[in-house]
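thought: fold this chain, then report.
action: predict
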Amino acid sequence: QAQLVESGGGLVQAGGSLRLSCAASGSSLRNNPVGWYRQAPGGSRDSIGSRDFIARLTAADDPYYTDSVKGRFTISRDNANKTVYLQMNSLKVEDTGVYYCFLALGRGVWGSGTQVTVSA
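observation:
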């Protein structure tokens, strides 16, 4: 059964950078859409429906981003190492939240999230 584990979150000042990683086990990432979502502060971590779309890669590796992160965030994957990345530059306070990795396989697979806090 596929599992995802995110890492790389932390506390950073506005304008700084972080790189999130999402390591997959039990399944290949190749040819499967993957994405990153964010749970804003105050939201329930159990509520998948309240997670906001941030970025995704199609099966053909075409990237898509929500408007607020275009030009600042970059999603990529390393199929050999079964890892998805989210490079986040020029971070803003409003980027704060718990970031979740998603694999579009079967009914969908979510990681447990990694906290990103951007201070002013």
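thought: worth noting. The CA atoms of residues 78 and 84 lie 6 Å apart.
final: tokens above.
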